Amino acid sequence: MLADRPYLLITTANFLIAFGYTAQAMALPVFLTRDVDLPDALAGTVFAVNTVLVAALGVPAARLSARGRRTRTAALGAVTFALSFAAFALLPRLVHGADALVAVLAVAALYTTGELIHSAPAQSLSVQAAPDHLRGRYLSVHQLSWSICRTIAPMLLGFLLDTGPLHLWAVLALLVLTGAAILLCAERSLPAHTNLPDRPATPSG
């Protein structure tokens, strides 16, 4: 598997973009209560909004994302993550008081949009790009990219939180955008059938 450069590229991209997913649980609570000055109870509302949106829109979003090339759609999700990180970075400077919660929820919805756009095509790409006879081994390595990210993320995000919110969101945006760029580079070397949009089902009868 180590000789399969295209698969290593999409696995590396997944490792980098995975930091975008860890931000919600590991960095966002501290940022919202310390830097945006939201009460602890209201900060939990962001997680509730994310959960509801993912549950309600996950299937429709997956169907829509299946119409595009998997690498490009997953890269679009990473870019959307980066936009939400830029918006989070601006929140302490632009909003205060009662307006802060509304602004935070709007940015959280943008963050969730990135998650919805990226998740399905990235998972599908990891499966389709793996050879049938080695799929289990390939997917184990791909899953390892998530595990390594979750191991590193607490230390990295904790350090970035100490240096300030601007550094935190700038580094996270850089990571996910690098992952998006790697996905687009991998597109050139992936077998065409692994990356093509899903064909709509043909009605029987």
Spatial extent as radius of gyration = 18 Å
As an assembly, this protein is single chain
The name of the CATH topology is: Growth Hormone, Chain: A
For the termini, the CA-CA separation is 42 Å
Q: What is the CATH superfamily? A: MFS general substrate transporter like domains
Q: Give the count of helical stretches.
A: 7
Uncertain residue ranges: 200-205
- The tally of strands reads 0
How would a crystallographer describe the biggest sheet? none
> Helix and strand string, N-terminal first?
HHHHHHH
Helicity level: over 70%
| SS-based class | mainly alpha
What is the correct CATH architecture?
Up-down Bundle
Which range does the strand content fall in? Answer: under 5%
Number of domains: 1
Shape: globular
Q: What is the CATH top level name?
A: Mainly Alpha
Mean pLDDT score: 89
Descriptive tags:
mainly alpha, Growth Hormone, Chain: A
In words, what does this structure look like?
- It contains seven helices and no strands.
- The chain has a single domain, classed as Up-down Bundle (Growth Hormone, Chain: A).
- Helix 4 runs antiparallel to helix 5.
- The protein is mainly α and about 200 residues long.
- The radius of gyration is 18 Å and the shape is globular.
- The C terminus is likely disordered.
